[in-house]
Amino acid sequence: MNQDELFKKVISHAKEYGFIFQSSEIYDGMQAIYDYGQNGVELKKNIRDYWWKAMVQMHENIVGLDSAIFMHPTTWKASGHVDAFNDPMIDNKDSKKRYRADVLLEDYAEKLRQKADKECAKAAKRFGESFDEAMFRETNPRVKGYMDEANETMARMAKGLTDGNLEDVKALIEEKGIACPISGSKNWTEVRQFNLMFATQMGSTADGASEVYLRPETAQGIFVNFLNVQKTGRMKIPFGIAQTGKAFRNEIVARQFIFRMREFEQMEMQFFVRPGEEMKWYEYWKEARIKWHKALGLGDENYRFHDHDKLAHYANAAADIEFNFPFGFKELEGIHSRTDFDLKAHEEFSGKKLQYFDPEINKNYVPYVVETSIGLDRMFLAILSAALKEETLEDGSSRTVLKVPMALAPVKVAVLPLLKKDGLPEIARDILKELQLDHNCQYDEKDAIGKRYRRHDAIGTPVCITVDHQTKEDDSVTLRNRDTMQQERIKIKDLATTINALISLKSLLKD
Ligand code: GAP
Asked: How many domains does the chain have?
């Protein structure tokens, strides 16, 4: 399966097995808005729990928050979103398709980088063990040419966007000969800025109503509650406030399934530190977050850091953790050193002090902030696309299996009576009742046992327990492991311990 085929398969599998549906599908759906089905909602919840456990419950100095989606409109003036939360858009006059100008240029640069990687791979094959990739990248004119052009393109784009020189961004698109993928033409409009916030009216009549925004990030709910939490929780710097929740952005280009949505969920943590110590904590959180990802076992080679060329209006350092999605390496999580920008801006706009008295240095100050921000839906897509496998078995048949990390699987255990008679369903239901106390389990008696195993492979169920006639004689069942397909016979009384060892979050969280 190539990457395109894999991506199509992920989308169709997500629908067929109740993970993700197009929103309002019976009315032909809405672009970039999705609903999570019976298995999707469980997987999503488990990812959220894994994050919450690691970030909040395993850090003495981080606490949670659940702030409202609607916030006072001045919040967004202070945060800079009203003036600066824009994407540069450009239309192709022939296809009438709208694009993000920066994405067109990033894709162009990425293709150049891929060409350089290909040259390196070819050379590695040619030179064998003696190949020194770093040296080759530095000295090979073709590779250097590709990389220089990619870097120059990104740097010029970043400068154009930072300076508000949109004419130069358009000139760059034209100079690089970038064509519309639909019409193939280079007939572009000017580049314009487009604000991504959704606005709506609050109040019963349009006259008396005021304009409010659906929050485009959850972070501002944390900033405006900074003192509430610090005071009531008697928090001492450094400390963090974390929350998960919906965010809304009127994305210009909504594509790649749940990668870029208009309604999505974020998991964010703001870590408040002493001014001057933010770089230390920025490095700390980069390290901690990549570890959290790699613990899932989706393959270390599927992650990389990308330092931002163009910093957001609030940041003095920023990096993305990128994941190797079926459409290439793309941002999964952002780690930003946000300085004191937000708290200072809220002080200014609200007229209230948002300062901390640091007893260790006997000083009042506005704390600096290091943020970790990850999209829950993107994390879901990363897991789904890395986990979906087509395997050819020893007997030549094939199976589709979703090798999601066992601790995150939507259904942890399937309890299956071999037959629908002879008292086997009753024993199976007793086992189910006991295991249900700890895990999300399913009872399934329909179809032949092999078909039932396949059904559970497809939704990633780590363990299938089969109750057969021998169970009646010696209280033992078979336990089938999703990944190895090995079956072992174990006593019913030992089920809980064996299953816990396989699917507990503990193994992911320990390090
Ligand atoms: N508070 C900082 C912030 O919101 P961001 O880089 O704009 O930073 C953080 O977003 C994360 O939210 C991203 O790394 C991504 O995982 C997720 N995200 C952003 N826009 C998204 C969208 N339209 N659809 C799905 N996830 C999105």
From this structure: 3
Which CATH number covers residue 91?
A: 3.30.40.230
The amino acid occupying position 125 is K
Domain residue limits at 185:
86-195
Among 195, 229, 255, the domain-final residue is 195
Q: Is the pTM of this model over 0.85?
A: yes
Same domain? For 8 and 99 the reply is no
CA 249 – ligand 1 centroid, Å: 9
- The one-digit pLDDT tens for each residue of the chain (511 residues) are 788 899 999 999 999 999 999 999 999 999 999 999 999 999 999 999 999 999 999 999 999 999 999 999 999 999 999 998 999 999 999 999 999 999 999 999 999 999 999 999 999 999 998 899 999 999 999 999 999 999 999 999 999 998 889 999 999 999 999 999 999 999 999 999 999 999 999 887 666 678 999 999 999 999 999 999 999 999 999 999 999 999 999 998 777 999 999 999 999 999 999 999 999 999 999 999 999 999 999 999 999 999 987 777 778 899 999 999 999 999 999 999 999 999 999 999 999 999 999 999 999 999 999 999 999 999 999 999 999 999 999 889 999 999 999 999 999 999 999 999 999 999 999 999 999 999 999 999 999 999 999 999 999 999 999 999 999 999 999 999 999 999 999 999 999 999 999 999 988 898 6
What separation in Å is there between the alpha carbon of 265 and the centre of ligand 1?
9
Q: Are residues 496 and 407 in the same domain?
A: yes
284 shares its domain with 381:
yes
Residues facing residue 392 across a β-bridge: 398
Same domain flag for 312 and 384: yes
Instruction: Give me the CATH number covering residue 350.
Output: 3.30.930.10
Q: Are 409 and 469 in the same domain?
A: yes
Residue list, ligand 1 pocket, CB within 6 Å? 217, 219, 249, 251, 260-261, 264, 266, 268, 331-334, 371, 373-375, 377-378
Last residue of a domain, one of 195, 221, 242: 195
- Of 334, 218, 242, 322, the C-alpha closest to 285 is 334
**Do 411 and 431 belong together in one domain?**
yes
Q: Verify that 219 and 292 share a domain, yes or no.
A: yes
Cα 395 to the chain's mean position, in Å? 37
Best probe residue, ligand 1, of 373, 374, 376, 383 (max atoms within 8 Å of C-beta): 373
Q: What is the 3-state secondary structure (H, E, C) of 381-423?
A: HHHHHHHEEEEECCCCCEEEEECCCHHHCCCCEEEEECCCCCC
Cβ atoms of 34 and 22 within 8 Å: the answer is yes
At a CB cut-off of 8 Å and minimum separation 6, what does 225 contact? Answer: 65, 67, 241
The secondary structure of residue 255, as a DSSP letter, is: -
Distance 103 CA to ligand 1 centre (A): 15
